[in-house]
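Cast an eye over this sequence plus tokens and explain the fold to me:
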Amino acid sequence: MNDAQQRVVVVTGAGTGIGRATARAFGAAGAQVLAVGRRAAPLAATAANHPLITPLTADVTEADAPARVVGAALDRYGRLDVLVNNAGIAGGGGLAHLDEAAARRQLETNLMAPIRLAHAALDPLAATGGVIVNVTTAVGQRAWPGSAVYAAGKAALDSLTRSWAVELAPRGVRVVAVAPGAIDTPIGEHQGLSPEQRAAVRRWQLDHTPLGRIGRPEDVAWAILRLCDPAAAFVTGVVLPVDGGALVA
């Protein structure tokens, strides 16, 4: 990254998967990274042997989290250049078996937390000509029976990406999104799926991914890093699928 040494990046959900890979990619490029997550141990693992990554334990759904996260970045580094809204949770269950509490948890984490964090980070990002990156999902652009709440929340984040891109352009803030497909992360375990269920999901995903493999978190981190590069200064409002061709198949 050009000028990476001067850049400060906040990555939420940085304890595992895409968040961990993204934090490490920015750190390897020379950026200062504030790695945010709910659990201290996974964050420590993310930061291990990566001196430019600083862990911050925070639940992004809590009312004081946006101020804490943005304040920590400004207190430590004095600026903020990139906010990566990556933290997310998934859950199943069709409409006939609605678990309203579980649906609310998903929407609070996947939709409301990015809104609140972006709001809290807006002035610092405007001061640096910064970037907001929303991590959504390729299935947000197609039907996903049984996980409709998850897909709907991510689709809403796609829409916010486009709206914010237009709204914030006069302030010099770019807004982009990446929409991962089947990626090798612990999200299935976090959902409580059994090994047999996770294997069945993987078989279905492979059958519907033209490139014939499950993606790596590093594949998504690469896309995020490139969209945040100063060389991408004329790119905003885009939702970039990183899905092995699943969306167009």
